[in-house]
Amino acid sequence: MLNENKVKMMTKMAIYEKNEGSEMIKTAKYYKSDYVALGILKSLIATTFAFIIIFILYAFCNAEGIVANINELDYVALGRKVAAYYIGLIVAFSIISGFVYSYKYDKSRKGLKKYFSRLNKLERFYNGQNKKK
User: Fold this and answer.
1) Rounded (10°) angle between helices 75-132 and 32-61
2) pTM: predicted TM-score of the whole model, two decimal places
3) Can you list the alpha helix ranges (DSSP code H) found in 17-132?
4) What tens digit of pLDDT does each residue of 35-53 get?
5) Residue 131 and which of 40, 64, 74, 114 are 20 to 30 A apart at CA?
6) DSSP character at residue 30
């Protein structure tokens, strides 16, 4: 005979695993510091590519002015300005992504605690049924 509580519990667990559980189970493989560092690294790589693309687009949009003033440009000052913008973006996105990935890790840990408590409850239920037989 089917136990209604067992079916409800297994359904909740299956829905959890299908929706947000798969992502949360992936985070369980990491320590918090490793997960946050990996997230920051991904963010830095994406920020670098985005900065390069924006820089190239800006250069293409202002190509006529750049070519007209190519001899009068102060390349050292321009390089410093570009480097300052890049460093500012990197610092800002590193801080933001550090907070975001830390929050995601903590949230996934809370969800995993619920998931594992349900697993333990289900295991106790099965162990209780095996003892009755």
Assistant:
1) 140
2) 0.72
3) 22-27, 32-61, 63-68, 75-132
4) 999 999 999 999 999 999 9
5) 114
6) S
